[in-house]
From TrEMBL:
It comes from Mytilus edulis. This is Haloacid dehalogenase-like hydrolase domain-containing protein 3. Coiled coil: none annotated. Pfam families: Hydrolase (PF00702). InterPro entries: HAD-like_hydrolase_domain, HAD-like_sf, HAD-SF_hydro_IA, HAD-SF_hydro_IA_REG-2-like, HAD-SF_hydro_IA_REG-2-like_cap, HAD_sf. PANTHER family: HALOACID DEHALOGENASE-LIKE HYDROLASE DOMAIN-CONTAINING PROTEIN 3, PTHR46191. One of its GO terms (cellular component) is nucleus. It comes from the Eukaryota. CDD domains: HAD_dREG-2_like.
Length: 311
């Protein structure tokens, strides 16, 4: 994929002001980005000058970068490249693949931004129920309320409690409880990260396998105002890692996949799924040692605050 970075009148002057009129001529820089997310400069052009970049010509790469203030601190990049000019591909891959392009950051919610207060104990039954009625029963014609009620009943029944009338009351209470901030807590650093991203002018969105209570939950936790859109799987009609839900998020944002980054804690849903449609992704994981080999460790973080390094 070829990506252009356009800028001000000095962005692409590879002659450092030595053109006949003594000034910069403007133009563009073209980078080639591979499937691994790394970027390499291919060519640049000004009104009076055109050259082809070789991977070993670090000094010329720096010359063309004069004025690309939207990419990275030029002083730091110059110092790094001059000390290791043969590692140009690595340097641009590490620093430019995200810094120069990200216009949209989407986040998973559960265990990424918020978590259940006190934890839950129905994970096995939840997986079984979700296999039988995927995505909170949306394609089966049942409401999310009914979906959760049945899950709660089956969980208690499997533990030997069979009073179905009492279980219906319990299930309804839990459904309403987890619609409020009483059932959830905001993870440390989440609000600071959202505020920092918002201050950079980057759009923020949610892509979550959740039912229609999600916006109410985020509002009750004081987080909803950070997001330009909230996309839950139940209302979207598709769940991660189905491509349609990521595509819907891009449609809502008006941002192309190449300019979007997703972060979450599930390998299939939050790392592989977004990449399958051309988005970038970062995996949030506390135990890096258990991550499979196909996940690039450079795109793994252990704390949400580390996502700021990629934008």
């Amino acid at each position: 994929m070829l990506t252009k970075f356009k800028g001000t009148s000095q962005d692409c002057d590879a002659s450092f002001g030595n053109l006949p009129d003594g000034g910069s001529q403007g133009g563009y820089v073209v980078f080639l980005m591979g499937d691994d997310g790394k970027v390499n400069p291919i060519t640049w052009q000004s009104k009076k000058l055109r050259r082809v970049v070789r991977s070993t010509l670090a000094s010329e790469a720096l010359a063309l970068a004069d004025g690309v203030d939207c990419v990275i601190s030029l002083a730091a990049l110059f110092k790094e490249l001059m000390h290791n000019e043969n590692d140009l591909m690595h340097t641009f891959g590490e620093h430019l693949s995200y810094v120069a392009m990200i216009k949209l950051l989407t986040l998973d919610v559960t265990n990424t931004v918020i978590r259940v207060l006190g934890g839950v104990g129905h994970q096995t039954k939840w997986k079984e129920h979700n296999l039988k009625y995927p995505n909170y029963g949306v394609s089966s014609g049942i409401t999310s309320h009914a979906w959760w009620n049945e899950l709660v009943k089956q969980t208690f029944i499997s533990s030997g409690y069979t009073d179905t009338e009492a279980l219906s009351k319990v299930a309804t209470h839990l459904y309403l409880h987890f619609k409020t901030n009483k059932g959830w807590e905001v993870l440390p650093n989440s609000q600071n990260v959202l505020q920092d991203v918002k201050s950079k002018g980057i759009k923020l969105g949610v892509i979550s396998n959740f039912d229609e209570r999600l916006e109410t939950v985020l509002s009750s936790l004081g987080l909803l105002h950070y997001f330009d859109f909230v996309l839950c799987s139940r209302l979207a009609g598709h769940a991660k890692p189905q491509p349609q839900i990521y595509e819907k998020a891009l449609e809502l944002s008006g941002i192309s996949a190449s300019d979007a980054l997703h972060v979450g804690d599930h390998i299939d849903n939050d790392y592989t799924g977004p990449r399958n449609i051309g988005m970038s992704s970062v995996l949030l994981c506390n135990n890096v040692e258990k991550i499979p080999d196909h996940v690039d460790k450079k795109f793994v973080i252990t704390n949400l605050v580390d996502i700021l390094k990629f934008i």
